[in-house]
Every structure is written in structure tokens, then in C-alpha cells.
Amino acid sequence: MSDEVSTIVAPSAAGSGARRRFGQISIEVRRNASSGLRIAAVAIALLVGLGLSAVALVLAGVPADSLADEFIMATLFDPTNFKAVLFQASPLILVGLCAAMAFRVRFWNLGIEGQMIFGGIGATIVSLLKLGPDPARLYLMALAAMICGALWAFIPALLKLRLAVNEIISTLLLNYVAYYGLLHLLYGPWKDQDGFPHSPSFAPSELLPTLSSGMSVSLLIAVAAALLMAYVAGRSRAGIFMRFVSANPSVARALGVPVGGMVLSVVLASGALAALAGFTVVSGQEGRLTQSFFEGYGVSGVLIGFLARNNPIAAAIVAFLMSVLFVAGQNLQVFYSIPSSMVQLIQAVVVMCVAASDFLVVHRIHWIRGTP
Amino acid sequence: MSGFLVTWLANVPQLAVPYALAALGLIISERAGVLNLTAEGLMLVGALASVGTLLTFEVHPLVAMVVGMIAAGLVSLVFAFLVITLRVNQVIAGLVMVFFCQGLTSLLGNLCGWTSKAFTGLAPLPLGPLADLPVLGPILFRQDLVAYLVIPIFLGVAYMLSRSRFGLRLRAVGENPEAADAMGIPISATRFLAVAGGGLLVGLAGAYIAIASVKIWVDDMTAGRGWIAIALVIFARWNPWRALIGALLFGGIQAVIPKLAAAGIMLPQYLVMTTPYLVTLAVMIWGSVRHLHRPSDEPGALGQPYVREERR
What we know:
Number of helices of chain B: 13
Subcellular location (chain B): Cell membrane
GO cellular component, one term (chain B): plasma membrane
Number of domains of chain B: 1
Helix content of chain B: 55-70%
CATH class of chain B: Mainly Alpha
GO molecular function (chain B): transmembrane transporter activity
Number of strands of chain B: 0
Order of helices and strands of chain B: HHHHHHHHHHHHH
Oligomer: heterodimer
Largest sheet of chain A: 3 strands, antiparallel
CATH architecture of the domain at 85-339 in chain A: Orthogonal Bundle
CATH topology of chain B: ABC transporter involved in vitamin B12 uptake, BtuC
Strand order of the largest sheet of chain A: 1-2-3
Structural class of chain B: mainly alpha
Protein name (chain B): ABC transporter permease
Strand content of chain A: under 5%
Pfam family, one (chain B): BPD_transp_2
Radius of gyration of chain B: 20 Å
């Protein structure tokens, strides 16, 4: 059962199938749940979660009859909002991939926000120093971002591998360190001439462009990353190693899998993905390094990775749905002055419902009349 | 120099109390085998509920803090239901609970208009002539009631965990649920009690920050202290007394920072604010190095759901 501790694997594999009776109810552990059942359980959980959220929204002052309008029509069928959904999806896909990859080697990377911050800082260093020729600037910014994010992720990875320091806590603590480091830069050496705590704006050649079709380049980056990760996890040798590590590190080690090196490289890649998300936000959305560009992505990434069961393609899809929720939330904020924390609450409630629905997938519950 | 020391040490208890209470609450839960990452969220619930009660009903601050405790205890039941009854992965459930509580408290604080409203809060106890003693007076006899209550709370919980019948059963559930189940100890009920009881203490820690220490509610005002408390539990190796010492250490470090600035030592403001987190990290590393090749004191079944149907 140690699978339960550090990977997000449904405990279906380990059942003996013995029966137990609580008076009238009997619970049985399923060995294998059908995928149809899984999908049905998730669908029901989503409906319950959205239903609860709808109640909360109505209580907070959104008219009940316009809820569906706001959520479905206004976000998916309005061209401006749909573009916003696609735009917003790219960092979410990247942070979702970041979490999903780390979870595949049993590393709880909760330091997504810190790695994003370092991604933003790396990109801004290149912009401020005007490194490289203009046409190459964006590539250099992305590269610098990924290096900085990977280096920031290197600290908890090394601490875990060498000293067995719990990565859940170390990554979370490092988020705060990164955040205050960012504030130090923005209130100090990198403060803009206008006196506000953000960096000077990036030059036009340092902004992620939008293609003529209206598609943003950040989305292309995110989708490419998702496909690459799907290949790595599903088809490559490294992916097979990752599956060994995830199933049982000590057996993997006995089989000759370089467990430490595997974990380290996946965590570095995970940090680089988070940093790439940071880069797409500062260069694609904000146009400069700001105080709060990373906010809300950390937990969202972890939740996306969890809901996607660590599958990169599923992570991209979940991230897209999460993005619908984000954009709908922004609209609610504008039109009904619903606080932004509502989106956070809805996300949490939906994830709780989906996590709870797993119980129905993994267990079979019978009602028994009378004594059996 | 002695003036500096006295004003510094006089501030330590107030900063150490939330760490001590939250870590103690987490220890109860984790000794029963439930890995509890909810502290940051439950502290916010305790803080908001107590501030809301104080602002709405103008009750005694202690009454408000009790309400905050109860609110956090109730919310921790949601977590208990998720991880004990439904066997949701405890890390994910803990994170979601924190996220949920952050959203909920920020939303309610906003909708009810409790945000950024200052109030008087909990005052220090008047201990008469004792408070005027040189040196010892400000440090030991000018604290508030809850700071003094921490000592009996720790004595009680430490006794409960190490000596009482219930504590023995609670630890058995955390070490080896299969054996405990065979002995007839109700696993789920014991874990529910441990999580809820721990939730009360974590809620009190949050209420203390809001009512006794900062005396205002703002979003996310716990600022990572819940995570520091979790690190403290690991550092203390699930032992209440070591957690208390750790809390005093962290409180001492946090208290010294503003005093340094007041003493005219110029430090970059935002970098200084990273010290509590860096110190926590350093303490964790130190603890890890010291115990690297020794058996861990971690409860045997920490983080694992108990599934009786799978008992072999």
C-alpha cells in the first residue's frame, strides 16, 4: 500500500477482494474498474461539484438563470472570450505538465510558483541586459527562464535525494523565499522609472507574438510541450524508467534503473516547465515582470496534474477546462463583482468531488437486506 | 544591550504561540497516522471565524477565539471524511483543503466586510506587581491568557499521548492499524477524533494570530505559518516537547528581525522577510542530517489510508 503515500495511483491494484459487512452495507475493493465506470464517476463528480459551486455563486449574488449563460455561452461561444480561454490555457497546460511529470517519479513538486517566479526573473535578466541580437532575444529569454527554473527546482531535489528532506515542505518554503526575492528586485534594483514595483516594459521584440490566425505562440509552446511529454512518458526509455520508479523505487534500483539520476532529471525538467509557464505569462500576457504574475498557478498546476492522473495529454485537456473556469470567473468578477476567490473555491470544490468519486470507482458497495 | 534583549524576549511568546499550538494539533493527527497538510487553511478558518464573531457580536475576545477553534474543528471534519472515509490521497486532500479554506475565508471576509477592520483584541493579563519586575516582568508576566494556557495544553496533550489509554490507542492506530484493528480499536473513529482534536488546536493558533497578535483580518494573513508548523512537526519528530522548543526558536527568530531594524541595523527589507522560511529549511536540513542513518520516528502508517477489506 505504500503506493498511496507518494504517487497518485488509484489503489485498485492491491485488493484482495475480501468482503466486509457493516450491518446493511457491504464494501468490497474492486481489482479492476472499467474505464466506463471511471468516466461515469468523474462526470457525476463534476456535476455535483459544479452544482455546489452554482449554489455558492447564487448565494454570492449571481442571478440563477444567467449562470449557464455566463459559464458556457459567454466563454466558449463568444469569440473574444474563447480567445481569452485559449490564451489563459497555455500557462495552465505548462504548470499541469510540470506537476504531472514530477508526480511520475514520486516527487511532490509544490514549488511551481517559485519556479515560475525564477522563470520570470531569468527572462527579465535577458531583457534588461539586452543579451544577444534582437531576433534571438525571445529564444534566449525562454532558455534563461528554463535554466533559472530548473536551478530553483534543483535545490529541493538535491535535498531530497541526498538528505531525505521532505520535498513537500521544502518546495513550499522555497516559494516564499522566491516571492520575497522577487519583491526585493521589483522594489529595489529593477523598479521601473514610473516608480511602480514592476520591471521596465519589455521591448516589442521581447514579447511573445500572436500569429495572424489569432493563435498565440504561447499556446503552441504549451501544446508542443504536452506532445513532447506524452512521447517521453509513453514511448521513450526514460518513460519506462519513470514507471519503474513510480511503482517501486527499491525494486527499480535493484533492476538497474538509475533512480536518483532519473528523479533529478525529471525534477529539473519539471522546474523548467514551470519556468516556461512563467515566461509565457511575463512575456505573453504582462509584458514585464510584475508582483503577482504567478499567483494562482501553483495549486492549479498540482490539481491539474492530479485530475489528469499524471497523463500529459489529459493534463492539457484538464488545463483547458480550468481555463474556461478562470475566464468565466474573470467575467463574473467584472459583471457581478464576485471576488476572485470564488474561482479558487470552485476549483477546490470540484477537485474534492472528483477525488471523492474515486471511492465509488475503487470500491463496490452493496446494500444487503436482512442478515446474509 | 540588555534593553534590546528584554524587548526581544518579551515578544517571543506571542510569536511562538501559533507555531506551538498548530504543531501540537498536527502531532495529534499525525500520531494517529493521518498526514495533515491542512494547517495553513485551518488557521485561516480559525482566524476569520474569530474575527467575524468579534466584529459582529462584540463578545469577549476569548469567546471569539473559541468560536474560531470550533469552526476549524468542523472544517477539519471535511478533511477527515475525505481521507479516512473516502480514502482520498492525503497529500492531495490536504492541499485541496488549504486551497478551499483560502478561497472560502477570502470570499466570506469580502462579502461580510470583515477585511482590514482593526479591533482591540486580546490584551495582556494584569499580573499586578509581578509585571513590574525588572527583566523578568516584561518577558514572563506581561503575556496574554492564551500564552499562559499553552503550558497546561502541552502538559495535557503530552500526557494524553504518552500515558493515557486513549493516547496509547491513538498511537497504535498510527503505527500499525492492522494490529490495532485486531485488538478491537475502532480505527476510523480514533482517526476522526485525532483529526478533529488537532483541528481545534490549529484553529486556536489561527485565532490567536488574528485576535491576540495582529488584531486585524486580511486575506492569507497566516503567511505560510501553517507550512512552517508542518516543518516543525517533522523537525520535532512528532514529539510535543521538541515541538514547543522549536516553536520558541522560530518565535525568537521572527521576533529579532524588527528589533534589528529598530536598533538601526540596515538590512534589505524583503530579503529579511525570507529568513523565517530559510531558517525553517535550515532546521529541516539539520534535523535530516542528524537522523540520516537512524530509524525514523515517523508513525508507521503515516499517510496511508486503512482499508480493512485488504487486510491479509
